[in-house]
Design a protein that fits this description.
single chain; mainly alpha; 3 helices; about 40% helix
Length: about 90
């Protein structure tokens, strides 16, 4: 990223979120989760992701099963009344 890296962006996003929602959740009770997607897979990078406030780190190339599990875990798309992803066969 030209101005800030993903760590700084995550820190800023979460700080701004807490400014608007001091209870650390939306009015409906949902929380804001940041999931990293990175090609830089090493212990230091993963540690920095968690330190910045990210809840999970996915590696590139993205594994569709891992992405789906992350969405199901953190974004609870099944509770919505419309499909998040519509696949045509």
């Amino acid at each position: 990223m030209p101005i800030m890296d993903g760590y700084d962006a995550t820190i800023r996003i979460l700080q701004d979120f807490r400014t608007f929602y001091p209870d650390d959740k939306y009015p409906n009770g949902d929380k804001l989760y940041v999931v990293a997607v990175t090609a830089f897979v090493n212990d230091e990078n993963i540690r920095n992701c968690y330190k910045a406030g990210m809840v999970e780190v996915l590696h590139k190339p993205v594994n569709c099963d891992a992405l789906g599990a992350s969405i199901e875990t953190y974004y609870h798309y099944k509770k919505w009344h419309f499909p998040l992803f519509k696949l045509s066969v």
